[in-house]
Amino acid sequence: MKKNVEQLEFSQVMQLIAQKEILSFKEALIYLDVSQSFLYKLTSKKAIEFTKPNGGKIYFKKSDLDNWMLQVKTTSARALEESVFNHLNKNGNEKRTN
């Protein structure tokens, strides 16, 4: 029963976060699924954009959090193979025309 209540509360929190553009520090923790210390490290290193109105609480634009999460993209093996194949085909065609 307790798990069901926790899942329901978490679901409600996620729905609330999905509707917001600006997130509090606690909401950002949930949205990013990171620890408090990790998020503090990111802010102290200025590795992630945030606002601190009046020197108080920290807030984040959800779009900035999305950009941070997507900044280091790993290419799949299939995409790499296609890229190499296309590059080899392109270079092979250029050599034939020269």
Q: Percent range for helical residues?
A: 55-70%
The whole-number mean of residue pLDDT values reads 85
Shape: elongated
The tally of domains stands at 1
| Strand line-up across the major sheet | 1-2
Number of contiguous helices: 5
* CATH topology value: Multidrug-efflux Transporter Regulator, Chain: A, Domain 2
The residue ranges in which pLDDT falls below 50 over 5 or more consecutive positions are none
The termini sit apart by: 74 Å
Give a short summary of the structure:
The protein is mainly α. 65% of the residues lie in helices and 6% in strands.
Please provide a written account of the structure.
- The chain is mostly helical.
- The chain has a single domain, classed as Multidrug-efflux Transporter Regulator, Chain: A, Domain 2, CATH 1.10.1660.
- The chain has five helices and two strands; from the N terminus they run αβααβαα.
- A two-stranded antiparallel ribbon has the order 1-2.
- The protein starts with a helix and ends with a helix.
- The model has no long low-confidence stretch (mean pLDDT 85).
